[in-house]
Every structure is written in C-alpha cells, then in structure tokens.
Automatic annotation (TrEMBL):
<dbReference type="InterPro" id="IPR002937">
    <property type="entry name" value="Amino_oxidase"/>
</dbReference>
<keyword id="KW-0274">FAD</keyword>
<keyword id="KW-0285">Flavoprotein</keyword>
<comment type="similarity">
    <text>Belongs to the carotenoid/retinoid oxidoreductase family.</text>
</comment>
<feature type="domain" description="Amine oxidase">
    <location>
        <begin position="46"/>
        <end position="385"/>
    </location>
</feature>
<dbReference type="GO" id="GO:0005759">
    <property type="term" value="C:mitochondrial matrix"/>
</dbReference>
<dbReference type="GO" id="GO:0016491">
    <property type="term" value="F:oxidoreductase activity"/>
</dbReference>
<comment type="subunit">
    <text>Interacts with COX5B; this interaction may contribute to localize PYROXD2 to the inner face of the inner mitochondrial membrane.</text>
</comment>
<protein>
    <recommendedName>
        <fullName>Pyridine nucleotide-disulfide oxidoreductase domain-containing protein 2</fullName>
    </recommendedName>
</protein>
<dbReference type="Pfam" id="PF01593">
    <property type="entry name" value="Amino_oxidase"/>
</dbReference>
<dbReference type="InterPro" id="IPR036188">
    <property type="entry name" value="FAD/NAD-bd_sf"/>
</dbReference>
<comment type="function">
    <text>Probable oxidoreductase that may play a role as regulator of mitochondrial function.</text>
</comment>
<dbReference type="GO" id="GO:0007005">
    <property type="term" value="P:mitochondrion organization"/>
</dbReference>
Amino acid sequence: MAAGGRGLIRALHSSPCPAWKRAQSGANGRLKPEYDAVVIGAGHNGLVAAAYLQRLGVNTAVFERRHVIGGAAVTEEIIPGFKFSRASYLLSLLRPQIYTDLELKKHGLKLHLRDPYSFTPMLEEGTLSRLPRSLLLGTDMAANQKQISQFSRKDAQAFPKYEEFMKRLVLAIDPLLDAAPVDTAAFRHGSLLQRLRALSTLKPLLKAGRTLGAQLPQYYEVLTAPISKVLDQWFESEPLKATLATDAVIGAMTSPHTPGSGYVLLHHVMGSLEGMQGAWSYVQGGMGALSDAIANSAATHGASIFTEKTVAKVQMNSEGRVQGVTLQDGDEVRSRVVLSCASPQVTFLELTPQEWLPGAFVKRISQLDTQSPVTKINVAVDRLPNFQAAPNAPGDKPQAHHQCSIHLNCEDTLLLHQAFEDAKGGLPSQKPMIELCIPSSLDPTLAPPGCHVVSLFTQYTPYTLAGGKVWDEQEKNTYADKVFDCIEAYAPGFKRSVLARDILTPPDLERIFGLPGGNIFHGAMSLDQLYFARPVPQHSDYRCPVQGLYLCGSGAHPGGGVMGAAGRNAAHVVLRDLKNM
C-alpha cells in the first residue's frame, strides 16, 4: 500500500496455522449434511457459543462468510510485516468465566496489560523549562492524584471517591451481564414451571438493588443523565472531565450532553482481566489471536468451523420451526437449532423467511437505531509518535504513555460536543475526537524492528454525508488528512512517519464486518435498546418468534464490546431448550 493509503489489504491469521485451522483438514473440516446446532458467523460471540455447546456434547458447526474468523476481532496484515487489529483493538470486557471455562490461556491467548492506560496531552505553548501539560492515568491512585492536581487540587481529592462510587455501580450491574434478562412474558403467559424459572431471573436485579442500597437514586442518575452533568457534580477541571467522558461517547453517536450517555461509560469501565478490575490490554498477535484461542477451544472438543461459507437463508419446516440453513453455494445443512451471531437486521430481515415472522416484530427490528460515528484508521509508521507534552527518549524506545489510549482533541467536553454537532449536520467533525493506540509499544511482534502499528479510533463521521456526497476515496482521504493534521499538532513529524494507512468509514465497517450502519455494538447502547429491550421488548432472552432460532451476537443482551457474554448466555438458553425438545 502506498504512503497515501491506497492499495489492497492482505489478511492473514494471527498465527501461521492455529489449531482450529488444522482441524479443518481433518474429519471436522468435512461438511456434514446435519449437525445438532449451526452458528451463523464466526464473530467472537458465535465462537464462544459454539465452544460452550460443543463442550457439552452438542455437535456444532460455524459458518463464516469471510476468509478469516473473528468478526470485528481480527488481525489483518496491511503491508508485509505489519499486523493490525483492524476493527476492535483492545480487550477488557471479556467475561472472566469465559477466559477460565474455555481455557483460553492454554489455547494460546497472551495479554499485555496496560498500566498506565490513559494519556491526554494538552495543546499548549511550551517553553524550554516547561513542556505542555498532559494527564496520565493508571492504577496508582497517588500518581493519578498528582497528575490531576496540575489542573485542580479539588479534583485530585475527589477522584478516589469517584472511582469507589463507580466501582460499586459496576459491582451491582456485573451479575446482570451473565444471564438472560427477566422473562416478563413468562410471568403473564407461561406455565407454572416457566413462571418459577422466570422468578429466578429476578435474583440478579434484586441483588443489584441491595448492592446500591440508599444510593440507588444517585446511581439511577448516572445511568440516565448526560455524562457531562454527572461529571460536573464531581469535578471542575475540563481535561479530567473530557478524558473520562470519552468512555461515555466512544463508538456512540452521542454527545457528553446526551441523556443516558453515562451507561456507555459504565460499559467501558466494567471489565476485568486476570483478576485486575477495570484493566485493559493488548492481545499478543492482535485481536485475531483471541478469536483463534476461542476457536481452538471449540475445535479441540469437536466443533467444525468453516470460512468462506456464507449462509444465504434459514430453513423452516412446514410447521414454522427451524430445520437448518442453506448456504450461498447451494448446500443445505440440517440442524435442530440455529444461532445467529449476525446483527438483528441481517438475521431477521435478510436470512429468515419473512412469512414466519410477525409484522410488528419485523417493524421493530427495522427501526433499531444503528447510527455510528466511527471511522477507524489503521496506520503503519516507521517511528514512534513524538508528543510535545512527553518527548521521546533517546533511541526511540516506547515510554509509559505510548502504551496508553492517547486522547487527542479531548481537552474540553465542549470540543467533544462540537465534534458531535458537526456530524449531526451530515459533516465529518472539524476537530475529530481521536483515540490513538500503539499496540506495538508492548507487542513488538506486530511490526518490523523500529516500526509500529497505530490504531486511530475517530469520531464523529456520519454514515450519510450532507449535500449528496458519498464516502469515496477522495472524501475518505480528505477526512484522514484532517485527522493526521490534528495528530501533527500534538506530535510534530507524525505525518512524515506514515508508511501506509487503511481508512474504514461507517459504510466500510458495515460492508466488511457486517456492522449495521457501521455500529460497533450492532445497535445503539441507549437505554431504550438495553436489557429487556435488546434487541426488542419481549425477545431479550435470545429466542425469537421462530422456534429454534436464537440471536447470540452483540445485538442481543448485554450488547457490544469484546465480551462474549451474549454467546455464552445464548448457548445456555439453547442447551435448556434442547433438553426439552
């Protein structure tokens, strides 16, 4: 790919031949006419579902339309020697039970935990004796307070209390992620046994209420109010508020002033890795290595995983029950159940015969909010970015801030809101919010010696541009140039270091990865599309109006992020149903 960012992208597996791929050449690699379960899509949730089903004796096949597994959790090689986590790029939310149950460490998963984890440089005039300020945050609370005190001593004192406040909310909500939402329909129409089973699903909700106790009203405000209002109650310094607010808007077509943006922040701080609450990590070999580890676990127990096998249609019998799938090449595969890791729109509006779905259900699915502000830019560089606020060390060795999520154009929540307002008018942000990550700072296997891979998660860019414009190469490169100009202001010389770039706008993310509207969560993580209402009310338990068809991707509870919970939860629901068939 030329330095201007034009050319073809070559995709490879994160290792030369992972175990699941080797299994394809054996008995598990031959397509059988019938399986117990079929999974549509080898995104990480689909692979998790397959692994759990197969471990418990359900003969399972996974069909992936692309030549590489993982959905958005993939490693792809842009130019020889440079390996990119092309879409998702960080790991934190993966449920601890999945890490343990599927023995992912045994199957090749290696993590590089980041500490510190956040770096926000300021655009200020420096002097020979004083560099521009920056905000560096990590797990050391005393160090965090020292950093924050540059901007406000009051905020430095408040920060530990804020962290404890948020940790308690995470503790309350965490159990809700690992089970289907309360089955309200069973209370009204179910048998006695179904009603008793539905009562058991109330336990996590009741436990959450007890955990929050008398502070429940304050926590309710965090979930429903604009994050700017919540942060204003805690802090006065804009660099700290804007840095924290990025977690509330990242991946979402929302402003810090949008009601309900607080939940998205919570969604991004509730992770835990290797016993460390709130930890974020890079995956050795890129995010595709995580998908390979999950697939290896599934294949070890006998699951069959097929790439370049596109499912064209879900098959139904004359009684309206699922009986398998038809592949694009014409092959028909029978199964007792079908789980779809695809988005709700693809699953129910494209793959499922419409005559078997209620009109009201189809209408609700078609009306889901899938707006996305994200353009992901993957960059190969021949040196580390050199930030004015934290100059590089001799020898160009990575420093602590290089391993962080580096927040640019994030000195003030007003900047974030203005960037959002641009996109609401159909224009790419004039000053985009940029999260810059350099995974090769901790994982040198991703790039040749001395070189690095840079991930730019940017927003806000609308799916549909104003004035009849489309996201052609000219528009994409104009936007990328604007992003690079912004980076150059913080790290002079960045543009000269660029060897290649891969620009993925919302339509690209939709086309390549199947993300509806380019939305990384398969749908907005707004309160009207969560828990009971994900993907739509009355169908939040992974089942759908068609018997034997289940949703197991990010469009189901508890939503997006590389979490695996939807896949695991759906697998447990399927197992219960199979026992009753």
